[in-house]
């Protein structure tokens, strides 16, 4: 397999640090450059990031001495030196949209963790096991942008990366009609640690700005269909959510209630989860979990602390599946928000797009 040079835009942030550690020994992708805001530009990565390094692994040796570039000013240099970039920045949405399109127009594909382009109709929002076919919309996007290689592909919000994978294998056969999800979200989802957000120690905050809207609307794009030059959102199931911030460093849990047109048995649901696999498993992509969906029979699992790192933080785990008096069933599920839910999901998407030839 050929190797690809990549850049990390927003390398000093929480998700950027995840990218750095995940890509350290990646078999296909070689991190050639790092970029962030003008505040970090000109410093070595070690200088720029050391005070806010939040990973348990140390700063990758090969990246410590790279001089951080300015993501906004050095676009042509960056686009000229790498095959594509990963992007996770904290900026106003209109500026992120402009920045990502500028990279795409400079013929540098962008694999984005940001929400700015999630509702652009010709930008695919891919969960690789669920909607890999949405990659085909990139041809229409390239036509609109006037590019040969450049495009933007996005990852969905981290909140939904547990319950959407759990519902997906049940959709076609049993038709999910409605779902209610209460999410219990880790503080790293806000780019924070307990050190930088001491108010979260011994606390629960029942509001995460914009999160409930994303958690309800984004699944419909993921389950949408390509029609002509755009992805048209699905109209079902109806989803309602409440999103709470809880004092956990990593790992988003969701309590889910679900009803079906054709109610399956508990065994049928467990079998659908156990048997489900997608293109990443078929293609044996480097970051793909062997088993995407795991079910715990123990009543007190999955637990964020014990189970978030399952299969390198790329698997989704479920437990406590049982009948409900108002909905057909209820269960809990968990996924790692900065691995499967952010950087890991984006790396897997990049692997999928590479395998499909979009990075050549
Ligand atoms: P973060 O820790 O606050 O990091 C923000 C990054 O953006 C830093 O590298 C920062 O560089 C850079 N940045 C800020 N202003 C910039 C500018 N004008 N030009 C270039 N770079 C700039 O944020 P995060 O948690 O990593 O999140 C980054 C993005 O990923 C956000 O859009 C977020 O919604 C999304 N996301 C996060 C998670 C998660 O679990 N954390 C999950 C999914 C998606 P400096 O250090 O130089 O300021």
TrEMBL record:
Keyword set includes Oxidoreductase: yes
Domain of life: Bacteria
Alphabetical UniProt keywords: NADP, Oxidoreductase
EC numbers: 1.2.1.11
Database matches in InterPro entries: ASADH-related, Asp_semi-ald_DH_pep-lack, NAD(P)-bd_dom_sf, Semialdehyde_DH_NAD-bd, Semialdhyde_DH_dimer_dom
List of catalytic residues: 158 (acyl-thioester intermediate), 252 (proton acceptor)
Semialdehyde dehydrogenase NAD-binding domain mapped to chain residues: 5-138
Alphabetized SUPFAM superfamilies for the sequence: Glyceraldehyde-3-phosphate dehydrogenase-like, C-terminal domain (SSF55347), NAD(P)-binding Rossmann-fold domains (SSF51735)
GO biological process, one term: threonine biosynthetic process
Gene Ontology molecular function, alphabetical: aspartate-semialdehyde dehydrogenase activity; NAD binding; NADP binding; protein dimerization activity
The keyword Lipoprotein is assigned to this record: no
PANTHER family membership: ASPARTATE-SEMIALDEHYDE DEHYDROGENASE (PTHR46718:SF1)
Family matches, as NCBIfam families: asd_EA, PRK08664.1
Assigned protein family: Belongs to the aspartate-semialdehyde dehydrogenase family.
Protein name according to UniProt: Aspartate-semialdehyde dehydrogenase
Gene responsible for this protein: asd
């Amino acid at each position: 397999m050929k190797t690809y040079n990549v850049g990390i835009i927003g390398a000093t942030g929480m998700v950027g640090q995840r990218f750095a550690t995940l890509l350290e020994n990646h078999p296909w992708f070689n991190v050639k450059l790092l970029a962030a805001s003008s505040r970090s530009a000109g410093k070595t990565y070690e200088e720029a990031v050391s005070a806010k390094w939040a990973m348990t692994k140390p700063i990758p040796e090969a990246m410590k001495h790279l001089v951080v570039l300015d993501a906004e000013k050095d676009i042509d240099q960056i686009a000229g030196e790498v095959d594509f970039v990963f992007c996770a920045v904290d900026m106003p949405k209109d500026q992120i949209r402009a920045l990502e399109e500028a990279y795409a127009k400079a013929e540098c594909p962008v694999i984005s963790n940001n929400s700015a382009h999630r509702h652009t109709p010709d930008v695919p929002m891919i969960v690789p096991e669920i909607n890999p076919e949405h990659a085909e919309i990139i041809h229409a996007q390239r036509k609109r942008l006037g590019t040969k290689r450049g495009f933007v592909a996005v990852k969905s919000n981290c909140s939904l990366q547990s319950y959407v994978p759990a519902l997906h294998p049940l959709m076609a056969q049993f038709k999910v009609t409605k779902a209610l999800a209460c999410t219990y979200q880790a503080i790293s989802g806000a780019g924070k640690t307990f050190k930088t957000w001491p108010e979260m120690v011994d606390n629960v905050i029942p509001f995460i700005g914009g999160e409930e809207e994303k958690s309800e609307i984004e699944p419909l794009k993921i389950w949408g269909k390509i029609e002509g030059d755009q992805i048209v959102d699905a109209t079902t199931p109806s989803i309602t959510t409440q999103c709470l911030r809880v004092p956990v460093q990593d790992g988003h849990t969701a309590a889910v209630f679900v009803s079906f047109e054709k109610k399956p048995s508990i065994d049928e649901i467990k079998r659908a989860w156990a048997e489900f696999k997608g293109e990443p498993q078929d293609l044996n992509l480097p970051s793909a979990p062997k088993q995407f969906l795991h079910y715990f029979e123990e009543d007190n699992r999955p637990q964020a602390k014990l189970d978030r790192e399952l299969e390198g933080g790329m698997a989704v785990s479920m437990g406590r599946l049982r009948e409900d008096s108002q909905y057909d069933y209820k269960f809990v599920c968990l996924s790692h928000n900065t691995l499967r839910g952010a950087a890991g999901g984006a790396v897997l998407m990049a692997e999928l797009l590479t395998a499909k030839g979009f990075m050549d």
